[in-house]
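Hi, here's the filled form for the chain we discussed.

Project: internal
Contact: R.S.
Residues: 177
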Amino acid sequence: MPADLELNLTLYPSPFLRRVAPVVKTFDEGLKNTVTNMLEVMYKNGGVGLAAPQVGLDLRLLVINETGDREKTEGELVLVNPTITSRKGENTLHEEGCLSFPDIYAEVSRPDACTVKAQDVTGAALNLELTGFLSRIVQHELDHLEGILLVDRMSAGDKLRNRAALQELVDTYKQGL
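And the returned structure, exactly as it came back:
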């Protein structure tokens, strides 16, 4: 992918968001450029995490910075081909948002901790024990790689509360077809 290719957010209800992302097999400059571009989109849109399908890329790749601050690059985490090998702790409810669902929030139940096996942008193996907010972000972004969306995790009450905003996204999507 060229470094100057501009990525745009893919919004609900695009069917692309429902695809299971395939494994990344090539670790090269193109992948590094993709990561740079994804981080830019994440920061530009005020996010703390972004999965490749959210910018129309069919890759098992996600970028995270739990601070959401582009100046704090030490907080950046790039996970290629991530999988959760275990989930631990109590399930807790916390409000989540999603860049593919602008201005929509829902209470989502997730385990407090998880273990993730992945690769970095060079292909080196990573094994991470994650807790707290970072664990929640990774679990949310990994959902995207499996075609699972925020709306799938919403309670009936959250769906009702967000009904108008969800319908607006559907209507906007249909107008673009």
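Let me know if anything looks off before we file it.
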